[in-house]
Automatic annotation (TrEMBL):
GO molecular function, one term: RNA binding
Keyword presence, Protease: no
Domain RNA-binding S4: 2-65
InterPro entries: PsdUridine_s_RsuA/RluB/E/F_cat, PsdUridine_synth_cat_dom_sf, PsdUridine_synth_RsuA/RluA, PsdUridine_synth_RsuA/RluB/E/F, PsdUridine_synth_RsuA/RluB_CS, RsuA_PseudoU_synthase, S4_RNA-bd, S4_RNA-bd_sf
Species: Caldibacillus debilis
Keyword Magnesium among record annotations: no
GO biological process: enzyme-directed rRNA pseudouridine synthesis
This protein's UniProt keywords: Isomerase, Lyase, RNA-binding
Domain of life: Bacteria
Name assigned to this protein: Pseudouridine synthase
Length: 242
């Protein structure tokens, strides 16, 4: 038996909080009866409807994908472009990406059908570190890197403290490779941070998500997460430790 709002969240329909709102608003039925009370527990046999649509329960799945450039971080695309969901070949469940990477950004992306788990990992309150490798124009000074570390002011507010390291610089081509670790997830945040210090991104790759890496994978490859990895990510989101 599980709490009704948890079952709704896990199905990917809404976050736990939004699921609670749906229940109190009378939008949820269990076995044909409207349920407005939070904390009600349901079993696998109970029939659940949300906004009149039967809830489809699926076994949760979790994938780590090495997203190539030129692929959309979405479930579908109205322009017919390939999406990250298209790359998970043997899956027959309604998976979706946890967060997103830009069309021209490559790297580590998680996909799942577990809405509650995904919301945990994406919530700004849970400071999960993500590490990027950026090829940028120019060679940032130590002072510029310190600006990234302290946080820069973007149009949607200051960024949180980060970790920045100059990996290499090519004076002949006037480019540099910089490693940047952040725990936020704003739209185009990494690119905007580098633009702010005067070093636009030429190429960007996410190399790490928490303790997960791309080891053993090529662009377009993926693998299921192990149950231990899924649990570690959940614990990390809730406690900050694993």
């Amino acid at each position: 038996m599980e709490r009704l709002q948890k079952v709704i969240a896990r199905a990917g329909i809404a976050s736990r909080r939004k699921a609670e709102q749906l229940i109190t608003d009378g939008k949820v039925k269990v076995n044909g009866e409207v349920v407005r009370t939070l904390g009600v527990k349901v079993s696998e046999e109970d029939k659940i409807e949300v906004n009149g649509i039967p809830l489809e329960r699926e076994e949760p799945v979790y994938y780590l994908l090495y997203k190539p450039r030129g692929v959309i971080s979405s479930v579908s695309d109205d322009k017919g472009r390939k999406t990250v969901v298209d790359l998970i070949l043997e899956n027959d469940k309604r998976i979706f990406p946890v967060g997103r990477l830009d069309y021209d950004t490559s790297g580590l992306l998680l996909l799942t059908n577990d809405g509650e788990w995904a919301n945990l990992l994406m919530h700004p309150r849970y400071q999960i570190e993500k590490t990027y490798i950026a090829k940028v124009k120019g060679i940032p000074s130590r002072a510029a890197l310190r600006d990234l570390e302290r946080g820069v002011i973007l149009e949607d507010g200051p960024t949180a403290p980060a970790k920045a390291k100059l990996v290499s610089g090519n004076r002949e081509k006037n480019t540099a490779i910089v490693e940047l670790t952040i725990h936020e997830g704003r739209n185009r945040q990494v690119k905007r941070m580098f633009e702010k210090i005067g070093h636009p991104v030429v190429k960007l790759k996410r190399e790490r998500f928490a303790f997960l890496t791309l080891d053993g994978l090529n662009a377009g490859d993926y693998r299921p997460l192990t149950p231990h990895e899924v649990k570690k990510l959940r614990v990390l989101a809730l406690t900050g430790e694993y």
